[in-house]
Amino acid sequence: MSADAERGQQQRTVRCLIAKVGLDGHDRGAHVIARAFRDAGFEVVYSGLHRAPEEIVQAAVQEDVDVLGISILSGAHNTLVPKIIDGLKEYDAFEDTLILVGGIVPDEDRPKLKEMGVSEVFGPGTPMKETIEFVRNNAPRRD
User: Fold this and answer.
1) CA atoms within 13 A of residue 19's CA, in its CB half-sphere
2) 19-41 residue pLDDT tens
3) Closest by CA position to 17, among listed 142, 141, 125, 139
4) Please, which residues bridge with residue 17 across strands?
5) Domains (ranges, CATH) in the chain?
6) For 87-128, how does the pLDDT look when each residue is reduced to its tens digit (9 = 90+)?
7) Which of 84, 72, 85, 67 minimizes the C-alpha distance to 16?
8) Single pTM value for the model
9) Region for 97 from its dihedrals, namely left if φ exceeds 0, alpha if ψ lies in -120 to 50, beta otherwise
10) CB 87 within 8 A of CB 59
């Protein structure tokens, strides 16, 4: 077996947490992205509805995820996403986690989220292939 083949077998599967934060009660999009990520070969954990930022941080740390996808439709992204980022920093997990936000986020709020550490914001209608390729190209590599 070649060295490249051995490294490929040793590299772990991309591990993702799809999370619904706050009082947002619509999770169809979260289910769709979770299924698409699974079909793309990623390991996926779904948080379920109505999770507090602290619960999402705990799940991300305990599951040792590479990617945290935050689905939010309520408009509370400027309040809830910073709490999650602060929690990840508190547990020293921020640098190792690709943070994505999906849902309804006004264009004028996107730069602020990215300044905080969100890698990308995907709005409604984003092709699934684009989201999957973004994860493949940007998820932290761990052995």
Assistant:
1) 27
2) 999 888 888 989 999 999 999 99
3) 139
4) 45, 68
5) 15-136 (3.40.50.280)
6) 999 999 999 999 999 999 999 999 999 999 999 999 999 999
7) 67
8) 0.90
9) beta
10) no
In the sheet with 67-72, reading across from the earlier edge strand, the strands are 43-46, 15-20, 67-72, 98-103, 120-122
**Do 18 and 56 form a contact (C-beta atoms < 8 A)?**
no
Give me the phi and psi of 79, to 5 degrees please.
-100, -45
Cβ-based neighbours of 8, under 8 Å, separated by 6 or more:
none
133 C-beta neighbours (distance < 10 Å), count: 12
Which residues does residue 120 pair with via DSSP β-bridges, in sequence order? 100
**Which single residue is written with the structure tokens 């990617």?**
67
- 3 alpha carbon, distance to own chain's centre: 31
| CB contact set of 132 (below 8 Å; sequence gap of 6+) | 36, 37, 40
The runs of H, that is alpha helices, within 41-76 are 53-63
Q: b or e along 22-40 (b: 16 or more beta carbons within 10 Å of the residue's beta carbon)?
A: bebeebebbeebbeebeeb
